[in-house]
Amino acid sequence: MITLFKLLSSLPLALLHGLGWGLGWLTFWLSPTYRQRLLANAAQAGVGARDWRCAVGHSGKLVAELPRLWLGRAVPLQWDGAEQVQAALAAGRGVVFLTPHMGCFEVTARAYAQRFGQAKPITVLYRPPRQRWLRAVVQAARERPGLQTAPTTLSGVKQLIKALKNGEAVGLLPDQVPPQGMGVMAPFFGRDAYTMTLSARLALQTGATVLLAWGERLAWGRGFVVHVLPLEAALPTDLGQAVVATNRAMESLILRCPGQYLWGYARYKTPREAD
């Protein structure tokens, strides 16, 4: 598999995206469970057929582009909102980046590391893959200058807090279902979903600046645009209300480009046991 990853990493991004589009639709038609979940989640959010059809292809592109992002040459990157990052870093309180499962969420932290990581590194929270061979690839790919990783464990949380106290940045996917005991039920597109409390806790406990970020995937392999936006309002000091506000912020961001959201993700699943 590693050999296949290396071969795919040398292909042009446009070709990988073309293969990924086909993979997305193949998965959609071959997996009734996935298809039903994608359609149900899109309907729950009020997303029309044009957008969810677009999202089917983008879900495949997300998978196909990984070898290039992890092992291949650099991809074209543009910024929309870099001044938000500069201002947040200048404040010196640390930065919490919240990124939904939309577009290329792999590229956002890489773009930050490339542009700002020399002065203030970013630490991203991630769940290590269960496959041993893939775990080694992911670890090597994500550990690079200006970019560090933290596992979804107590030691990983401590690592994030330490980074924020040093005025650095951290990145999380707040719409990712956390392990049992690390979340609360909160509305997500009108339906209760088990939602992590960590992102809100980090912001409230450290006073860090919260920014919303996502990586837009451009057509025809032209690369990505990293969009950065501030929160419309400060998070409430009550943790439960802060989690609800975080979900609302994710909803607003997702509806800016629903055609690139991962609607097939099991957002409403029962959380697995904590490690």
Question: What's the arrangement of secondary structure elements?
Answer:
Elements (H helix, E strand, L loop, with lengths): L1 H8 L3 H18 L1 H13 L4 H16 L1 H6 L5 E4 L1 H10 L3 E4 L6 H12 L5 E5 L5 H11 L4 E5 L2 H12 L3 E4 L10 E6 L2 E6 L1 H9 L2 E9 L6 E7 L8 H16 L21
Parallel strand pairs: 1-9, 2-5, 2-8, 3-4, 3-5
Antiparallel strand pairs: 6-7, 8-9
Helix-and-strand structural type: alpha/beta
How many strands?
9
Which series of helices and strands comes N to C?
A: HHHHHEHEHEHEHEEEHEEH
Q: How far from one another are the termini?
A: 27 Å
What does this structure look like?
There is one protein chain. This protein has 275 residues and is of the alpha/beta class. The protein has a domain at 76-257. 48% of the residues lie in helices and 18% in strands. The strands form 2 sheets. It has a 7-stranded mixed beta sheet with strand order 1-9-8-2-5-3-4, with helices on both faces. The chain starts with a helix and ends in a 21-residue tail after the last helix. The mean pLDDT is 92.
